[in-house]
Each structure stands twice: as C-alpha cells, then as structure tokens.
Amino acid sequence: MRATAATVVKAVDVAPGAYNGANSAHKDKPDDLLYDLHHLAAVDSHPVDLEGFQSDPEKYLWESATFGVQGIVNRLFELPYEQSNTGPVVTLPGATTYLPRAKPLPEARQATRWEKFAKEKGITKKKRSRTVWDEDAQEWRPRWGYKRAKNGVEDAAIVEVKPGEDPNVDPWTQAQEAKSARVAKNLQQQAKNKGMGRGTSILAPGTKPGKRVGKREREAMAAATAAGPPAPVYGLPVDLPATKKHVQAPGGPGAASEEGGKAVPKKRGKVAGLKALEVAQQSTASLGKFDAKLAGEPEKKVKKVRKVAPVADSKSLVEESKRMNSVLSTVLRPKGTGPGTGKSHVNIDALEPERAGYSRKKGRGAVKRKK
Amino acid sequence: MRPLSEDETRKVFERLAKYVGGNLEQLVNRPDERYCFRYMDQRVYYVSERMMKIATNFGREHLLSIGTCVGRFTKSEKFHIYITFLDYLAQYASYKVWVKPQSEMGFLYGNNIIKSGLGRMTEGIPQYAGVVVYSMTDIPLGFGVAAQPTDVCKDLDPGANVVLHQGDVGEYLRVEDELS
C-alpha cells in the first residue's frame, strides 16, 4: 500500500510483538524522557535507583538504555515520512539541545600594513565621490567609466614640459608606465599581505570565498609565490655557532691571555663546511642515493670498494692458476680464431665430451646442410 | 702484493708472448715448481709460490720486491718489460739476434742496432716482433723489437735500424734507481 506524504505510522502497528514482550518495564514506566530527535538523543533525568543498580548494575543499565532507545524509535516512526526509492525517508526536526563549539574559533584577522599605518596615523577611510568636475566640459562627469571626466595627462592634447624635466620624454607613455607601476606595486603588496596571512581571512565577516581574481592580481600573486621558496643560499652561513672551548686563564678571571676564555670555532671554514655537507648528503634512509640535488651541489663521493682476493691460500691459488691458463689460451690462440673470425680457439668438444659433434640446426652458427 | 686481475694478466701475457711465443706456457705452468705473478706497486713480479707465501708475512711498507721483476705498468696502464726478466726471456726466446762485438757497447748504452752491427738473426722474424739480443758468445745482452723482417734486413743499408732497443743489461748501471 503506497502511503501518501505525511502519513503517520505508529511503531505499535509495525511491530506489535515487541510491545507484547516480556519487558514489563516498557509498559509501566512513564515516558517522560527529554528527546532531541535531531541528535537522536534521549535524556533520562530521573535519579538513579541505587538499590536496583547495585543489585544488578548491568541489567539496570541495559533496561534504562533500551527504554530510552525504544522511546526514540517510537517517536521516529511517528514523524511524517516520504517514500523514496530507498524506502521511507524521514526528515529529522530541528535540534533542541545546543551543542558546544566543535572547532576552535577562527583566528582574529591580522591588520595589513596599510591598516596598521592608517590606525597609527589616524587616517580614516573617505569615500570617493563618483563625479568629478571636468574643466573642459564645465560639467560634473564620472570619475571613471562611461563619459568620464578628461582631467588627466592621457586626455590632454598638449602637455607642457616643466623646467626641470627632460623634453624628449613622451609624457603619455610616462604616465601610462607610472600607472602600471603603481597598479603592479599595489597588487604585489596585496599578495604580500595575503602571503603573510594579513588582512581578510576566509572566515572573516564580509568575505566571499569564491571571489574571482583578475588577471593582474593573479600575476602579482604568482610573482609573489614565484619569488619564494627562497633561492638556495650557497656558501657557508656566517652565523654558524662556534663551539666554544672555554679555557680557564691561568691568572684567574681577570687575566688576559691568548688562549684563555677565547672561543675556538671548530665548525667554520670551507673544509669543515664541505665535510658537514658530505655527512648531510648521506644522512637519509637511503644514504642520499635518491635525493634530488641542487644546481651546483657537489656530487657525492662514492668510494669504490675493491674486492680483495685472498692472496695465498691453496683454493685461491688453484683458481688463480685456472684463470692464468684461460688467459694464456686466449693469448696464445691460433691466428684464425678469436673474436671477429667466427671460430673459437676453445675446443668445445674437449670441454663437453657428451655433446661432441653437436651442430646447430638453425640460428647462429648453424651448419647448413646440402639438400 | 696481490694477484693480477684478468685484464692485467692478459696485458702481461701478451707482452711476454711477443718475445717467448708459445713457450709462455712453460713459464706459467712450470714442471718443477709452481710459480705465480704478483702485483706490487705497479710492478709485476714472477715468484715461486713457496717464496710468495713467505713474503705474505711482511707488511706492504716493508716488502720491496719478491722473486724476479717482470716489468711495470705505466700510468696509462700499458705494460713494459724490464731488463730484470732477461734471463727468462733469453731462455725461451722465439726470435734471436746476435750483435757484433764492436756494436755491443753501442747497444749497451741504449742505442738501436744498425745493419753494420748485426751478426746474425733467426730466420722468419716478422716485423716488430719481440727479439732477444745476444753477443756473438751467446751472452744475452738485452731485448728489442725487430724493425724489419729478416728477408728485408738482408737488403738494408748499413746505417739502417735492424733492432729497436727496448732493454739492455747496461741499464743496471745507467738507470739503477728505476729498477727495483
């Protein structure tokens, strides 16, 4: 039977057997628990029956828990539900209990450089008027945009050269360049502020997380991020802490002496620095084998370990004589044999008598049979 | 002191084979006593095994030389035979050249042997073959390389080189400090 929306179904109707069961606690106990169906919670604020608890704590707890769960389930089934392709779906009501904050408060937003400066100087934000007086048109024209006022250098037909300036400079190009520089600088400063974590945060009131970023802004941000990670510093850091070797001056604390009390820097200098670099290069789990190297970083010195053959024991001597003889046979091989001739100087039949007379049927070294 | 690597062995044998040819086998596998080649500080020594085992008792810095010095590896890892090995070369030489008494001194000073100083030579010496030089009284004087094959030498001018000098017994006096 397909139920219409907002049909109320009682748990008693769904599973009457559960209600007729042996748990008498369900029937008699008055149901005055506080329910928060949004959180699927039931709060039992009755005082604990100490006698009952101590007689059988597990049973007592179990009974009270099941009573609470039963109450939740009853109420869930009393809620209006809708049919969906997965079955009856119920929308839980709003929460009645207020839960404390799960996550910490967002950090207070840091002031940008300008904001800090303005605060110190007492500069307040003044809203610019939309219109400006246009001298030529003798009208109030918009500051920017459609039919804007033509007050600047870019709209002037003739620009006078001031006494201290270069007459060969194009003032319009100059103005344009200056403006681009100002805009770029501003974007850089914005990016810098952002990089330093100052200014608007995503959680601050009034910010829109999905704000669209213009091309210039993007370039400025890219420039700010491209500048760092900071370029690798070559050479030795000057502020390497020196391991101080405090030598007590023989004449007491007041006496001056060449060695006494002077710090002997052990870890400075090119030699020590390169040594430290060597150590650092292999201070990883794979001994620095797979580490990406900076440009100009010296290659790790690989010590070639030469296999030391035992010199004088009988086994090695026998092997040695074998080796010598094989080399000898190579050196003294007859002229028509060896690499490049196709013939081997080694008599295979002598080495492998059971395969004597073997010739390949096909492939390299095959003996071509006459048909 | 260590045995030669395969590469080193090959170089030494090839050099020696130029002078002694197939007799090299008699050097490597001696019937009377087993001899071996040992490498020490760029020099190769030919020493009996018994001697070699005794020499293992000495430290590297104390051991100067063992047995007979065959020759030396240069910095570019080429092998040169030294005059100290002349006895063995003379014993097993495949190509021999005898020099006249008046030219002996010239050769012993490090000069090449010219046609007028040549006494006799074995037949069928190929060009640039390794050659052992003897005096007319069959005393080995040194070794060298045949500048020309035997049949060409017959028609040479008296001043032309027949044997190019490589080592002579005069070196014992001349370059005493270089030899070990």
From TrEMBL, chain A:
Listed A to Z, the keywords are: Nucleus, Ribosome biogenesis
GO BP field = ribosome biogenesis
Q: Which residue windows does the record flag with biased composition (Basic residues)?
A: 358-371
For the region Disordered, give the residue spans: 189-213, 246-267, 330-371
Nucleus in keyword set:
yes
Q: What is its main location?
A: nucleus
Task: Tell me which InterPro entries the record gives.
Answer: Ribosom_reg
Recorded GO cellular component terms are:
nucleus
Where is this protein found? Nucleus
**Entry function:** Involved in ribosomal large subunit assembly.
Q: Would you identify the family this protein belongs to, as annotated?
A: Belongs to the RRS1 family.
Name of this protein = Ribosome biogenesis regulatory protein
Q: Which organism is it from?
A: Nannochloropsis gaditana
TrEMBL record, chain B:
Q: Which domain of life is it from?
A: Eukaryota
- Compartment list: Nucleus, Nucleolus
Q: Name one Pfam family in it.
A: UPF0113
* Gene3D superfamilies attached to this UniProt entry: 3.10.450.220, PUA domain
Q: Name one GO cellular component term.
A: nucleolus
Which intervals hold domain PUA? 95-170
GO-annotated molecular function: RNA binding
Q: Which SUPFAM superfamilies match?
A: Pre-PUA domain, PUA domain-like
Q: Which UniProt keywords apply?
A: Nucleus, Ribosome biogenesis, RNA-binding
Q: Name one GO biological process term.
A: ribosome assembly
The UniProt subunit note reads as follows:
Interacts with pre-ribosome complex.
The protein, known as: 60S ribosome subunit biogenesis protein NIP7 homolog
